[in-house]
Amino acid sequence: MRSKKPVFGAMVASLGLLAASTPANAQKAGQNTLTVGWFNIRTNSSSTALSTNVLPVPINEPLGLPNSFTAEGTSLSTSNADTLGMTFSHFFTDNIALMGIAGIPPRFKISGHGELRPPGPAGALSSQNLGDPALNPIIADSRQWSLASVAQYHFFEPSTKLRPFVGLGASYNFFTNIEVNPAFARSVNENMGATLAAAAGKPGPTSVEADADPSWSPVFNIGATYNVSDSWALTASATYIPMTTTSIMRIRAADGTVLAVSKAKIKPKPVIFFAGATYKF
User: Fold this and answer.
1) Is the four-CA dihedral 63, 68, 70, 71 of positive or negative sign?
2) How far apart are CA 266 and CA 211, in angstroms?
3) Is 210 exposed, middle or buried (0-12, 13-18, 19+ CB in 10 A)?
4) Handedness of CA 70, 72, 73, 79 (dihedral sign)
5) What's the rounded Cα separation, in Å, for the pair 130 and 103?
6) Helix, strand, or coil here: 273?
7) Domain boundaries, the chain
8) Mean pLDDT for the stretch of residues 203-232
9) Contact criterion met (CB below 8 Å) for 220 and 271
10) Residues 133-187: pLDDT tens digits?
11) How far is residue 145's CA from residue 171's CA, in Å, rounded to a whole number?
């Protein structure tokens, strides 16, 4: 897909102006902070063309159907998302903290582009228009989970009112509850599944399922905290996760045999903006 599963993170506010020093019990060594707020996830996705492997059966050769082909011009893309989230940080020194990120897993949709068509004569018998507006998004719903930890450096002294920070970390990303658009599934079964099932000698209706591989990714974080009182602050930040995942679509025969598998490597490259209220304890 021209972009999935893929991720959670945080924030941006401008690092612009340096704050004046005022007495405020800002984040300091040994202190914890809990921030609750809103994640706005903006994707800038791209993907490779879909590569397909079909079940090797004797009739494929007379039909001119290769066991493996890449449909140039096809791709996948991922929607944007919003969700409620939180971060928890522990300050090991006045300037260095470790942050964990949690929240309600965001929900994404995935759209298809181009035409999935085998080369040669087989293309006249079996093809699928991925970009048909009536069939998109081809993935109607999916939940993306990210387990992320970020080491942060907070500038200036703990008593400073406004403290910018930068962070670097890692995330483990995966998708669940992936739902294929029923209209898309019907179209695939009619345009490709029926032909593949007949060629394989597997009578009965076919079905379509989707999946995505989990992945690790670095996390780049920047933002600032404005200390309102000894116990409360406002935090805003932006996080970039150069995530890559592999989207997988399978066509199965009535007996469960996998007739075809199509894959595309997606790079959602989300930038995640976060703003929330912070409690210090």
Assistant:
1) positive
2) 12
3) buried
4) positive
5) 33
6) strand
7) 32-280
8) 95
9) no
10) 999 999 999 999 999 999 999 999 988 999 999 999 999 999 999 999 999 999 9
11) 10
What residues does 90 pair with on adjacent strands?
32, 98
Whose tokens are 């406002």? That residue is 234
Residue 159, classed as helix, strand or coil, is: coil
Give the tokens for residue 227.
């200390």
Q: 214, 245 in Cβ contact below 8 A?
A: yes
If residue 185 lies in a helix (H) or strand (E), which one and from where to where?
A: helix 182-188
Whose tokens are 């403290």? That residue is 163
Distance (Å) of CA 99 to CA 23, 195, 241: 24, 52, 15
Question: Does the pLDDT of residue 128 top 70, yes or no?
Answer: yes
Average pLDDT of the chain to the nearest whole number = 88
Question: What pLDDT, on a 0 to 100 scale, did the predictor assign at position 26?
Answer: 56
Q: What is residue 208's DSSP assignment?
A: E
Closest of 236, 220, 170 to residue 38, by C-alpha: 236
**Per DSSP, what are the bridge partners of residue 235?**
276
User: What per-residue confidence (pLDDT) applies to 6?
Assistant: 35
Neighbour tally for 52: CB within 10 Å: 23
Specify whether the CB–CB gap between 143 and 176 falls below 8 A: yes
CA-nearest of 216, 211, 248, 4 to 107 is 4
Candidates 2.60.40.10, 2.50.20.10, 3.30.70.60, 2.40.160.20; CATH matching 32-280: 2.40.160.20
